[in-house]
Design goal:
Blueprint lengths: L4 H27 L4 H5 L1 H32 L19 E2 L6 E2 L3 H11 L2
Antiparallel strand pairs: 1-2
Helix pairs in contact: 1-3, 3-4
The chain binds zinc ion.
Amino acid sequence: MMTPPIVSKRRGRVAVAIVTLMALLGVVSRIFSHTAWLQGHVELLVGAGGAIFLAFSAYVLITERALAARAREANFRLCPHCGYSLAGHEAPGRCPECGKAYDADLACMWRVFAGKAL
Ligand SMILES: [Zn+2]
């Protein structure tokens, strides 16, 4: 069963943000690698890298748990593309919010996602 696109897109954006910030950290450390200040504070850069990773991991955990809670509240009938509640709408169909199509295995996909996001 596939992951809802709204979840995969968010995870992709978070991965890009982490890689970008780590690369920036690498560039900054390279630029300042010969300064006395950096040589005395390498642990700050390592700590900043760890903090970036932990902050984004916490963000993913919190937002996915909130989305799983919303899916449960909507009886596992959320638009897989935008998260709009499709309670009372036929499946398959088109989301009234984003206009994208969703199919009949919508509830199954959200149940699997919500089960993993506990
Ligand atoms: Zn939608």
